[in-house]
Amino acid sequence: MATGMIVKALSGFYYVHSEGELYQCRGRGNFRKRQIKPLVGDEVEFEAENKTDGYILDVFERKNELIRPPIANVDQAMLVFSALEPDFSPLLLDRFLVHIEANDIEPLIIISKVDLLDQEKLETIEQFKIKYEQIGYNVILTSTLSSEGIEDVIPYLEGKISVVAGQSGVGKSSLLNSLKPDLNIETNEISSHLGRGKHTTRHVELIKIGAGLVADTPGFSSLDFIDLEAEDLSHCFPEMASLSADCKFRGCTHTSEPKCAVKAALEDGQISETRMKHYLQFLDEIKNQKRRYD
After folding, report:
1. Which domain covers residue 13, as residue numbers?
2. What is the CATH number of the domain that holds 257?
3. 254 among the known binding-site residues?
């Protein structure tokens, strides 16, 4: 018996990387009965007589699990947003950030196409960069016409399992191709009607880029808040989470409660009004969803 990581799942086979070698394995016969479905990113125990005839015996506990792409134990999400065509959306970025924080995944914000901006719009994007860096996020600006900014991404991949997510039509697959030129991930043209590109990858695979592993399929297609409780939302806003302990009431939602540390910080300018606006919008959405499901 040995241990390793599933790096590819295809047609009922799981490809396990262990000590520099790759083993083609099937799942144990009782996995379905036990409702265990191995995922790319899983740490597993397996046995194999040779490299093409192995069996996964056990799947170790996961720290997180995504539905799209179906992958486990993700450390980092590279959130790709364009500065132009489509325009940068702070609301959509914050929505992605909430989902990533809720899954205990570290975000890396990448804003592409900055070379297409005029000076005024570039300064606006640079202000967004500063604002998110002050919260504690890492932000990288990249160019479409050169590799400028792309090389800055490589160090953030080291020792991590990463997924790519973000706004539709911003070139998520193009980013992967830029990071690893021999990858040649195919993408269809962006539909002018839908304003989105369609990814054509048929399976999930972790590819080695730099000293890290990156899923070759973009993720987070669903951005609703079904699994998030109203009282947990502020924990997904780091600048609020650090202040919540100072609120008078435990479980404070930072709306109408007295002696709220978050509202005090907002008044002092320590918390962005835009971020607070998005928080309240998401809070209403969660409460309305709960009412519908109840």
Report:
1. 2-61
2. 1.10.40.50
3. yes
